[in-house]
Amino acid sequence: MTLLERVSAFGDADRGVSETVGFVLVFALITSTIAVTFTVGLGGLEDAQLAERDNNVERAFDVLHDNFNDLSRDGVPSRATELRLGGGELSFDRDSVFRVNRTGTGELFVERGSLTYYGAGDTRIVYENGAVFRMDGDNGVMIREPDLLVGDTVVYSLYGLVGPSQTASGDRTVLVVGERADRTVAVDDRAADENVTLAINSTQAVVWERYYRGLAEDSDRISVSTGGSADLTVTFVADEYDRFVLHRTVARVEFTD
Description:
Helix content: 25-40%
Order of helices and strands: HEEEEEEEEEEEHEEE
Number of strands: 14
Oligomer: single chain
Shape: elongated
Largest sheet: 9 strands, antiparallel
Number of domains: 1
Strand content: over 45%
Number of helices: 2
């Protein structure tokens, strides 16, 4: 074999090796890309599904808020709200406590109870005392405000939830049924010669405080303090309003399939 033939044969073999190595590298790159995309993409898809589930529950709590207001404002006997759990958990308990006290007479009104949906991670969606919260651990936002009017007349609505302690979980749909148990005008003080205080004990206290401090910045009829036996104390200052009205509503809550 001549020198030229030897060089030509060596070049052909070299090209064969290069094509094999190139194929292996491209195949490895493709399989790695598919594996990474599948792993990261699937996790992202699951996170997106959980976030959308919690958003759907938030919208359901928005409807529940309006339905419970119907019990108070319009005096309807009952309302039912459909809620898709989607693997989360819905719980009713009576740990949150709201106390309204007339400082001059010592008259005291106490209501308690909250509905809590436990979603992805530390996410909780909560209804209590006429407001809806979306919480992440101890922090969160109030997404629906309570029924409160602050002007020359202060109108405060106190909501209580009663019923058996219960939970519902799994990938199913439940009906949250609220039945009006009591609805009264508990206070109608036209003289307004005494302060009225609201003491709050709640896992949503930090958001309640933010809400009432925002009102206090715009009105000298409200002052806010922390410490003592209550997580938060709100005082409606008698010298700054003409009349105080307290609406009290109690609803019995049950979950049904």
